[in-house]
Design a protein that fits this description.
Bound molecules: fe (ii) ion
CATH class of the largest domain: Mainly Alpha
Number of domains: 2
Shape: elongated
CATH architecture of the largest domain: Orthogonal Bundle
Number of strands: 5
Largest sheet: 3 strands, antiparallel
CATH topology of the largest domain: Hypothetical protein af1432
Mean pLDDT: 83
Length: 250
């Protein structure tokens, strides 16, 4: 319990050794510690909680939610692509900390759209050349948003790379092949799978098999053949996940 009091004898902080006089202090069992050390210790405890990802996950999901609100989106696109990207990523690593970054990167892939003006972001109909120029800044904005958080470094790279294409025709940097983060190359396949199989206001989603055929047709151009091979290897799992998403047989 934190309190203040006058002492009639010299009491020292059990952490830093400084005398505690009339300043705020904390009784710690039979000992005392000064307020500064108490706060440091609490910060350390929070850091320990963060280390297991619990607090970070809540913050990252809150950020993703913020974008959903901004886009007037009530769907679960971001969570779906994050879960589906993990299915592919697990073929390449068993490192849970890395997988957590992949999940966060996929979840926040479009977070930079928070910085896109309403007139562009919420426009009904096709964007013109100038509007596309603005829209293409969203991976960079997203990377900038996340780059202040060292624990999100890999996720930030996925965000920056998520609109790149294997053949170099993507944006914002026109990266080729393995210049693009592996996780972003896996994500690109999943993002397209979700786009093709989801209902849109202007068209119905198509069957998983049709989406698969389209993705196979883009191996080596839009998509990394390695990512497409992982997709094919996990097709049955992904097909079932897409089926759950739609709540109907496809
Ligand atoms: Fe995007």
């Amino acid at each position: 319990m934190q309190t203040t009091a006058k002492f009639d004898r010299t009491i020292v902080c059990n952490m830093c050794g400084a005398p505690i006089t009339a300043a705020s202090f904390v009784r710690d069992g039979e000992a005392y510690c000064c307020e500064g050390c108490f706060l440091k210790r609490e910060e350390y405890r929070v850091a320990q909680i963060e280390h297991d990802g619990t607090v970070y996950l809540a913050l990252v999901e809150a950020l993703a939610e913020a974008l959903d609100v901004r886009e007037h989106e009530t769907g679960l696109h971001s969570k779906r692509v994050a879960c589906h990207t993990l299915v592919l990523a697990r073929r390449f690593t068993a490192d849970e900390a890395l997988l957590q970054q992949v999940y966060w990167g996929a979840l926040l892939h479009d977070i930079g759209k928070i910085g896109i003006p309403d007139a562009v972001l919420l426009k009904q109909g096709a964007l013109d050349a100038e509007e596309w120029k603005i829209m293409r800044t969203h991976p960079g904005i997203g990377h900038h948003i996340l780059s202040g958080a060292p624990f999100l470094a890999t996720a930030a790279e996925i965000v920056l790379n998520h609109e790149e294409r294997f053949d170099g025709t993507g944006y914002p940097n026109g990266l080729h092949g393995e210049e693009i983060s592996l996780w972003a190359r896996l994500f690109a396949v999943i993002d397209t799978l979700d786009a093709i199989t989801s209902d849109r206001p202007y068209r119905k989603g198509v069957a998983f098999e049709n989406a698969q055929a389209e993705i196979l047709g883009m191996a080596g151009t839009q998509f990394d053949p390695v990512a497409v091979a992982a997709f094919v290897a996990e097709a049955e799992t992904l097909r079932n996940m897409v089926k759950v998403k739609c709540g109907k047989e496809l």
